[in-house]
Amino acid sequence: MRDLIVLSINENSQIAEARRLVSGLARGLGFNEVEIGKVSIIVAELGTNLVKHAKGGGHLIIRSLQWDHLNGFEILSLDKGPGIGNISKALQDGYSTSGSLGTGLGAIRRLSPLFDIHSLPGLGTAVMVRVWSGPLPRNFSSRNLEIGAINLPKPSEEVCGDTWAMEQTQDRSLVFIADGLGHGIDAAQSAHEAVNIFLKNRLLRPSEIMELIHNGLKHTRGAAVAIAEISVNHDVVRFAGVGNISGAIVTPSGMRHLVSHNGTVGGEVRKIEEFTYPWSGRNQQELPILVMHSDGLATRWDLNSYAGLCRRHPSLIAGVLYRDYCRGNDDVTIVVAKPRGG
Q1: 14 and 122 part of one domain
Q2: Is the pTM of this model over 0.85?
Q3: Per-residue buried b or exposed e for 172-197, using 16+ beta carbons within 10 Å of the residue's own CB
Q4: How many distinct structural domains can be found in the chain?
């Protein structure tokens, strides 16, 4: 399965097609028939909400997930419709603004092992669900960070020239993005070569990994690359970036941009340097959020302008950024990380 699939939903026939597609994906990932039935209902309810309530419909974005040998996927529903004025009321069975039975959001929440929603009047609604082919193991929540990501090719391309990866241990987490120069297969080759070097050397510091990637990409067209290391024990972020990968640490009190140097990894690099920034998780009201993205996303976003969004799951944050700031003429990758339970 491709990492992400985007489905436009603006009329009822597309809902039926989405149900068939997602049911087939679930079956291929080892879901049993009962779970496939639940997934089909979730997609039908999400699609129905898009057709009924969103102006011009919206999108379902499906991303594959894996934990050890357990498969799953995430479904994001994004629209720029009128939004929901009272989410708590909308989640109650029997509540409807369109004359329907009013079981949509409530049914989705009951059927989803993980459910989250963000909606603002006049701006639209984002809903996220995650489903798995079996029970999650007890150590599933041992990771320090929750991660959300979007990775999509330029609309005219079949292959995405961006890629991303993460690595988590008990005391450190690494987040990686590579944007191969240009588009298509050659750009993807550069990006995937970079991620392979990253994974083989993930125990090193970001600047050391970047040096190895730079040397390893000299036979390719090159890439923009950024690596962030979050040290849980020391409450710091170490960041090394070359090229136009943007990074920022967001808290309720503001946003701090992470510094990347100009250049192309594997080509001309003016300087490889590692910067250190504070990452504090002591105050529940000030838990930080790391956002990294390629230049397929405009840089003028501000999470704090969306009431309540910083408290939502990273996948919802990535989805809202994609919905509102995707340039639409380039590959786009967005990775959002925040402390688990925050």
Answers
A1: yes
A2: yes
A3: bbbbbbbbbbbbbeebbbbbbbbbeb
A4: 2
